[in-house]
Design goal:
- The complex is a heterodimer of chains A (about 130) and B (about 110).
- Chain A is mainly beta.
- Chain A is built from one helix and eleven strands.
- In chain A, strands 2, 4, 5, 6, 9, 10 and 11 form a seven-stranded mixed β-sheet that branches. Chain A has a four-stranded antiparallel β-sheet with strand order 1-3-8-7, with no helix packed on it.
- The radius of gyration of chain A is 14 Å and the shape is globular.
- The termini of chain A are far apart.
- Chain B is an all-beta fold and about 110 residues long.
- Chain B has no helices and eleven strands.
- In chain B, a hairpin with a 2-residue loop joins strand 7 and strand 8 (about 70-75).
- The chains are: A mainly beta (about 130), B mainly beta (about 110).
- The interface between A and B is medium-sized, with 25 and 25 residues.
């Protein structure tokens, strides 16, 4: 059974940066060839604001797409040797306090439209002075 | 960006009831729609993809319908574990966008 295991909770000061990681373990995602069949997105959840898509990484292309809302502040990277995808968010504000999730979707080429399937357990990021 | 609007924002129901949540897209998205369940402290759970298809392991009391701009999630024979917040999400275009959520509470 595929699992996505995320890094632990973070407490950050306004203006700083945070890195949240997501490692695929078990099942089909734990190999280079299989990982090329998925995209990995980051979604954050603030109970007052709901769910918000931040961006995605496409391993087979080595490229990322970002929501305009976060453009310039977010970077999504992948370490293929460890099957770990990381999300860096900079210039943190109190409004960035949320739980951040990674999630997978099948990917079979440009123009793919597929649903989120497997989710990580979530990482609480608190931004406070 | 495509706006997803859910209604109602909250509802109260009893165990055994049937509830329906609607989701409207600001433009046509064919059937590129998913439904998710979120409980406090838990990761989202994927329930439905392609508007009508159940994810593996999801009970058959959950069903989805619709295409284009109007979609519904129906939960039949509501169970105690179903009290949660439900979100729709379109994956037709970027950025992927979610509805604002519908909280299903115990009456």
């Amino acid at each position: 059974q595929v699992q996505l295991v995320q890094s632990g909770a973070e407490v950050k000061k306004p203006g700083s940066s945070v890195r949240v990681s997501c490692k695929a373990s078990g099942g089909a995602l734990n190999s280079g060839g299989a990982l090329n069949s998925y995209s990995i997105s980051w979604v954050r959840h603030d109970p007052g604001q709901g769910l918000e898509w931040m961006g995605e990484f496409i391993p087979v292309f080595g490229t990322a797409n970002y929501a305009q809302t976060f453009q310039g502040r977010v970077a999504i990277l992948m370490d293929k040797s460890t099957y770990t995808v990381s999300m860096d968010l900079s210039s943190l504000k109190s409004e960035d306090t949320a739980v951040y999730y990674c999630t997978t979707a099948l990917f079979w080429g440009s123009g793919t439209r597929s649903a989120f399937d497997i989710w990580g357990q979530g990482t609480k990021v608190t931004v406070s002075s | 960006d495509i706006q997803m609007t859910q209604s109602p924002s909250s509802l109260s129901a009893s165990v055994g009831d049937t509830v329906t949540i609607t989701c409207r897209a600001s433009e046509g998205i064919s059937t590129y729609l998913g439904w998710f369940l979120v409980k406090p402290g838990n990761a989202p759970k994927s329930l439905i993809f392609a508007a009508t298809s159940l994810q593996s392991g999801v009970p058959s009391r959950f069903s989805g319908s619709g295409s284009g701009t109007d979609f519904t999630l129906t939960i039949s024979n509501l169970q105690p574990e179903d009290f949660a917040t439900y979100y729709c999400q379109q994956y037709s275009t970027y950025p992927r966008t979610f509805g604002q959520g519908t909280k299903v509470e115990i009456k």
